[in-house]
Amino acid sequence: MRNGGRIAAAIDVLTDVLNRHQPVKSAARDWGKRARYAGSKDRAWVSGLVLDALRKRNSIAHAMGDDSPRGLILGALAHAWGWNIRQIDDAMDEDHAPSKLTLEERERLVMAPDPVAPPHVQGDFPEWMAPMMARVFAEEAVVEAQAMAVRADVDLRVNTLKVDAEKASQPLRSAKAEESPLLVNAFHIPARDPSEREASLESIPAYSKGWVEVQDAGSQIAAAAAHAQAGEQVLDYCAGGGGKTLAIAAQMRGKGQIFAYDIDGRRLSALIPRLKRSGAHNVQLVHPSEPTQLVDLTAQMDLVFVDAPCTGTGTWRRRPDAKWRLKEKQLEKRMQEQEEILAAASAFVKPGGRLLYATCSFLMEEDEDRVAGFLATHPEFTEEDAAESAIASGLLTEEGAAAVKRYRGPTGSVRLTPRRAGTDGFFFAVLRKAG
Hints:
Layout: H1 3-19, H2 24-34, H3 40-55, H4 57-64, H5 69-79, H6 85-92, H7 103-109, H8 119-122, H9 130-137, H10 141-147, E1 154-158, H11 165-172, E2 178-179, E3 186-189, H12 205-208, E4 212-214, H13 217-225, E5 233-236, H14 243-251, E6 257-261, H15 265-269, H16 271-278, E7 283-286, H17 291-295, E8 301-307, H18 320-325, H19 328-346, E9 349-359, H20 368-377, E10 381-384, H21 386-392, H22 398-406, E11 414-416, H23 418-421, E12 426-433
């Protein structure tokens, strides 16, 4: 496909995303089925442009004076991809391209960003979230949000149950992986040009052998804060796909027992092939259809890890379409769920044990507020220094240790963001039960 046809396709895909409320992956997949002639590079190009239009939706719409799919896609070419008027003109002259630029579009495409636009425009976040952004980030709300509107790196955790970082690095060179600046047993693949196809990690032998797992660095640091010890009894209460279960299993060197539970049995089942590939033999799945299994763990756990369901604001770089679907009622629902989950999970912590609460959200309403609310009703728990717990694991580099110390809150919890640490937005707090 030539660029003109790709631009037209991007407008079609974005139309489905905005008007039919489809996730980008689904809309792009549907378009791909209709456009059998499109190759993998074409699909990557189209998806990349749509995602960047969504990442910067507010600022592009403001600059273009147009929030239609056409306006957003054309604006993304200029304001996200850096195309000049001549490049856009040339593409619009090609076969199967959209109609040529109007005079107003041409003028808008060369305008500089508006330095006095409202924060939600400059920062590309929903307007209703402005008070929450200001609460957590104060005068840095815009720059923090802008760092969430760019493409994310791919982070890899080395599975030390099978291999060390040095040996794992050799086969990762083909994917242009670099050592993580934050973690000693991790690598990252820098974000590529949005028009380029992502490397297929599944095709790398190191992945199929179980040497590495895809896991954001912020998530890895939160798992490190668990500081799990060999021989401990651990419950991953909201295990989901099992990323943190596997990370904790590696910390424990395969010794002790990890119970992985999730209310969604289908998500839990997805962990089975990952467990097989990882070589972690000390993990037991606790299926929601067998509640007695869970009850038997009451007050028995050295560690309960709660990666709570949340709004996912910390993953906006990877899922920009979700940013615009988020509503206040959804946040309220998540906050209530988090309260209930924390209270339920705490029952499994033994005296002297610890409870780690984490979210991939940067909102204080889902983070510090939920921890404070829990502590107010559970006086047997006290908050500890989560930064020091992460450092004590030995999994952080000097730069990683400095980051968690720098972004440790007054009560000991830690919040990482793309701007602060180059990770997804992540929050974690460590709570200790009286012995």
